[in-house]
Write a structure and sequence with these properties.
single chain, alpha/beta, Cathepsin B, Chain A, three-stranded antiparallel β-sheet, two-stranded parallel ribbon, globular
Length: 226
C-alpha cells in the first residue's frame, strides 16, 4: 500500500480548514521563511506534489516522508502543522546540507528550496531564464528591483514585469511551476508595506521569442523596445 495522499484545499474548503486561530504552520525559532514557503507550495495547489511521491534518482526518502506525512498531509487535512514537525524537517536539512543553522537561524527561502529540491530530492530545475544570451536554470525567481516611487501598493504582475525588465531577463520556455519570491523579507527592511497577489500571471511579454502584437498597428511585432 502506497503513502497516504490528501488533495490540496480549494474554494470553500480552503476557507473552512485554513481560516482562524491555530491554523497554518506553527512558527518557532526563526522558521517563518520555511513556514511561508511550504504553505505557499502545498496548501492549495498540487503543482509540486511530485516532490511528495516521486522516487527521484537522488531522492532522500526519509526527508520526503517527513515533508509528506508530517507537514503537507496534516496541513491539508486539519489546516495545522506543529512546530515540532517543522523542527524534525529542519534537523534533517541540517544533517543533509552544508549549513548547520537550519534549526535556529533565519534563511533566504531560495537557499532552503535549492537544498530541498536539488540536493535532497534531486528534481530538475523548474525555470530556464536567459540574460545577455546566457541561459541559466533555477528553482525559483527572486524579484530584484530598485525602489520605485510610482509603486506604492504593487501587484505581483507589476513586480515580475519590472524585475525582468531591469535585469534584462526572459523565460526560455513556459515553466511548469513559477515560484516567485517577493521583495519583502528580513527583519530590517520592507520595500513595500503590502503587495497585492495577482490571481493570474500574464507571462506573454516575459517569454523569449514569443509572437506579440505591435502596439501601434496590431500586426505581429518584429522589434521590442524596453
Amino acid at each position: 500500500e502506497g503513502p497516504e495522499s490528501f488533495p490540496p484545499l480549494s474554494n470553500e474548503a480552503a476557507v473552512r480548514v485554513l481560516q482562524g486561530r491555530m491554523k497554518g504552520i506553527q512558527g518557532h525559532c526563526n522558521s517563518c521563511y520555511m513556514d511561508a514557503a511550504l504553505f505557499s507550495l502545498f496548501s492549495c495547489t498540487s503543482v509540486l506534489d511530485s516532490m511528495l511521491f516521486m522516487p527521484f534518482p537522488l531522492c532522500d526518502r526519509n526527508v520526503q516522508g517527513i515533508l509528506r506525512d508530517e507537514i503537507v498531509n496534516p496541513l491539508r487535512r486539519t489546516g495545522f502543522v506543529r512546530a515540532s514537525s517543522m523542527m524534525h524537517l529542519r534537523e534533517q536539512l541540517t544533517d543533509k546540507g552544508q549549513c548547520s543553522s537550519f534549526t535556529n537561524a533565519e534563511k533566504d527561502p531560495e537557499e532552503f528550496l535549492n537544498l530541498l529540491m536539488q540536493q535532497i530530492l534531486g528534481i530538475e530545475p523548474l525555470l530556464k531564464l536567459q540574460s545577455g544570451g546566457q541561459e541559466q536554470e533555477c528553482y525559483c525567481y527572486q524579484i530584484f528591483m530598485d525602489k520605485q516611487e510610482d509603486l506604492v501598493v504593487p501587484d505581483v504582475q507589476q513586480l515580475v514585469e519590472r524585475s525582468f525588465l531591469s535585469s534584462d531577463l526572459k523565460l526560455v520556455e513556459i515553466p511548469s511551476c513559477f515560484i516567485i519570491q517577493m521583495p519583502r523579507f528580513g527583519k530590517e527592511y520592507k520595500m513595500f508595506s503590502k503587495i497585492i497577489p495577482s490571481l493570474e500571471l500574464d507571462i506573454t511579454d516575459l517569454l523569449l521569442d514569443s509572437p506579440r502584437e505591435c502596439c501601434l498597428c496590431g500586426d505581429v511585432a518584429t522589434l521590442e523596445c524596453s
